[in-house]
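hey can u check if this looks right to u? its 256 residues, i copy pasted from the old doc so theres a chance i mangled smth
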Amino acid sequence: MKRLRVLLVDDEIMIREGFKRLFDWESHDCEVVGEAADGMEALSQIDVLQPDLVIMDINIPIMNGLKVIQLSRIKHPATAFIIVSGYDDFSYCREALRLQITDYILKPVNYEEFGNCIDNLKISMFERRMEEQPVLQEERPINGITRYLQEHLAEDVSLGVLSEEFHLNPQYISQLFKSEIGVNFLTYLTNIRMEKAKKLLLSTALSIAEVSEQSGYEDYRVFTKVFKKAEGITPSQYRRDFLEAKPEERGKKDEL
């Protein structure tokens, strides 16, 4: 996978410098290619640089971040956006989701959480490519491997198991994940297990232990720990928050 080109947009120079210096872009195969301090400059930089990812505050001068995203979608529909904001306001979140942003992260930024967000974005981009080019992807080993993982999530899957199934060296399979998707095997497996768990939590009445087992975790305590690290809340709280949401907001909250 090619290195992701990133544009940083924030009116506070210290925030932009913090992103550049405190986050390990190299290890996540990303490159900061530009910066902007207001909405108009952001639009111009997006046109000129055509970044893969824009990391942007909502409250920036001249034109707010949500408007920038709305206008950018017209000419650059494939560009991904991550909102970084000091406002924990669901109305902001709802509008951002309507614009199909990748994630909404609160300041001060937790860089481990941010790294997970970048990895999840890469996985989403890979899966979108698979959907858009099924014929071209069919003969690539990574296609069969990821499909196998999706179909065997409840089982004890490892590089060793994949090696026997596909008659490939475990190290080669590991390198495939990094080169084709941009994340390691465990990150990819954890991501798709968490997505499966969230769907089960919101669409079934299964117990947490049953959701854990169907998502590939024999010990529900391990599952709960991994889920909380990934989502910031426990599986029970995730389900409860959804059920307590107003009916008209459930769909949007589920997406967030």
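The mean pLDDT is 88.
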